[in-house]
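The authors assume throughout that readers already know how a fold can be written as discrete tokens. Each protein is reduced to its one-letter sequence and a matching series of backbone shape codes. I therefore recommend that a typical entry be quoted early in the introduction. For illustration, here is how one protein appears when written out as sequence plus structure tokens:
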Amino acid sequence: MTGEDILRLIKEKNIEMVDFHIIDLPGTWQHVTVPVSEIEEETFTRGIPFDGSSLRGFRSIEESDMLMIPDPDTAVIDPFHAVPTLSIICDVTDPEHVPYARDPRLVAKKAEAYLKETGIADISYWGPELEFFIFDSVRFLNQGHQAFYAVDSEEGYWNSGREGGLGQTIRPKEGYFPAQPIDSTHELRTHMVKALQAFGIRVEMHHHEVASGGQGEIDLRFNTLTKQADTVMMYKYVLRNVARQHGKAITFMPKPIFGDNGNGMHVHQSLWKAGQPLFWDETGYAHMSPLALSYIAGILTHAPALLALTNPSTNSYRRLVPGYEAPVNIVFSHGNRSAAIRIPKTASPKASRIEFRTPDATSNPYLAFAATLMAGLDGVRRQLDPVKLGFGPLDRNIYAMSAEELEGIRSVPGSLGEALDNLEKDHAWLLEGGVFTEDLVQTWIQYKRSNEVNPVNLRPHPMEFELYFNS
């Protein structure tokens, strides 16, 4: 589409407002709304000015003038506005229209361009599976003298003794695929699917997930890297607004409930060239080609650093513990969900792919997908062998293995701070082709340490009062 096409659409659909979206460095959508009376064809080349110093991870105040450049291909009518509104995703530039190196969407585009430049492949496909909780009530508070959080769901196991209840709660780890009325969030998820479809987003299925307390999943159809990252941002926006319309709250937080499964974002991915899948080999392990195995080796080799971008919250590492289907083991396997990389079982070359199970949706999808691609490509470029590097294959339930058997199996970092330390030491592979810049990597590390790691580490934890108050 072009700016002219957008103006035609505005007239045909009686649009009154245009909502322009950009993403900050940590991964939250920001927006500004412009009346259609101020929209011209030149708007799509001239851009919309904004204050870059007010966005997290962007510029400082003395160089804060920046521009949003709308991408007409992302235009969609937004049903969550009372006044007819068109929503458009934008790229970020400086006032001279030079693309801004810290714009996450630019990083995703550069990763796709770099893939073509390498000659390894000409396209990559991405299929993330985002898990989430739907809560009926959410409260939290952090002050110098007090701190608490409280979430509630009518189906939560803790409500089995509630007076007036109907006994239709879900025990921990027993929430996978129950039918209604046990699956109390089915109708709400259906409304979410219909809203996603109204945005032009293809949905494959929806279902209840393993945890009690309203955990669910809505699966997206695969797409190319930047387009899928756009879709993830729309997905989170749609689900949150539909939940709000029904008096509920939704979170993609990896571990909001202690003692039950958390929220992951399993990322299926594959490489193609000239219309042919590159991961398939009829005779290879799990039908994986040597190229696919090297791609796997790249991700697993850089996993301790990569997780600083794919699992970038302190809460991410509350999920990454053994015993909750969390993929903490840096190994690959055929159909094994306890491994960091699972190779789905398929007899179709076109369905040949890998599933990186460790990431979660607190990540910025543009950066997470781009970084994962760069790690995989580094493995291909260096012809790494995951077997020789000790990454498997391990086709066993790793959680049932003895301590002796587990010796030699590497685990993911135990905290965000540890992941950031690894990223600081190991990030040259991100800089290949100018996809990431040294400035972006260092800004990310500094931001995460200053604004997330240190604030969490400095505060007393409620559990510490239980453990130590009378020591």
Q: What stands out?
A: The radius of gyration is 23 Å. Residues 19 and 366 are 20 Å apart (CA to CA). The longest strand covers residues 123-135.
